[in-house]
Amino acid sequence: MAEVDALGVVFPFTGDRRSTTALGREVVVDALRAVDPVGARLAAAETNWRTGYGEHFRRLVVAGLESSEAAQTIAAHGLASVSERLSWAALDGSETTLAEAIAARPGPAAAAPARDLVTETVRGDGIPEHGVTLPYRGSRLDGDSLRRQLDDWTTRGIIEPSCAEAVATVAANPDWLDLSDLRLAVLGAGAEMGPLRALLRWGADVYAVDLARPQLWRGLLDDSKRYAGWLHLPARPGSGRLEDRAGADLVTEWPAVRQWLQDIEGRLVLGNYVYADGADNVRVAGAVDALTAAVMTDRPDTALAFLATPTDVFAVPRSVVTRSVAAYDSAKLSRALRGPMRALSGGRLLTRNYLPSADPGINDSVVPQQGPNYLLAKRIQRWRAAVARADGTTVSFTVAPPTRTRSVVKNRALAAAYAGAHQFGIEVFEPATANTLLAVLLVHDLRTGSGSSGQVWMDEADHAAHGGLWTTAYEPRSALGLAALLGVAAR
To answer: Does the global pTM surpass 0.90?
Structure first.
């Protein structure tokens, strides 16, 4: 990755180039070193990080099972490594570490042309929704129909029972949807998995941050006018069209966004829904984490919200293992066929998801096509959630379901695998269903406080909506190729 002229949050130089591979390896080594020195040495010795990264990210989870302190140490050291190894490149050509940029007051030399961000506000004309409704397969579910769907998902192992309970609790307390006591900052406002539209339907005050892309903001502004909430956004001063002035680049302007957020009155909820392709995903994840650390210093009562990707490694409770083992024993694919397929593939196809005795189990749903940068970006968010929760911060953290977002379906292999995933007991959600479900879970966490269980892995597994990746009979990667073939055939 040649980014000699890059600005803002950038990868550090390794020799004469900025190396994403070196950064990823070094962060994992730093995170593991104090808890799992053998794992750290293995990661440091990995010669092909782009294909061998998966085992080392898995080790980050397994090593954290030793104790809550071990998991917290991995998270804290991982975050420290990210902020100390990523660089902050200013317009004048100077570079500091991201950690130094976070600590600087009022801020380091700008990475983008200096400008003040003014707040523009659009109020919708709609009437606030006062109950939970969930769009699903052409219908809007509420009341009994919503409860039946939650029961169906739970029975089939699509969501965890705690997820169904959380949604049902919010549905039984519709007054919780009145979020007038909170100010909800949505970073990555245009994200398909984000809660912005649901929050506006409920009449919330939403502070939306996304890139300065007129087409993106035109769509958000049009939608906001139809809903009941207040959409506040950062913009350049002036009299031009709002969509042309709106937005800020977190990679180069997070200090300006920090200043913008300081002026908001009321309790803030900082929601992280950002995404970018490739190495830029790590840059924006690092920028948002820097912003989060700074905002927590400025406003200690801030609550945090994150969505975890289901295509990662998680420790899962015994109840999940039991369901998966039962699914393996009763799988439609007979043992007579399963055995030869495993033999012909060298054991790579149709491997059972867990050992029957596992407690907790380790679910490895990593998709190699998404690459190490994607996994590192998502791990930064998980680490921040763990550290913040341990410090007493209210944290909403939910494992999201596999969803047909644009970023997924543009990958033909993933799109085909998703099309055939139902053959293995996995349900792939439509974006409207997923983002509304996840917004309801956010409300639940904000209203109940979402306290810590004392174990990081248990907190991460709580009310997960994993789509069946955890409870399916087979280790997901061992069934991915077959799912893709079935998906192509179905099409």
So the answer is: yes
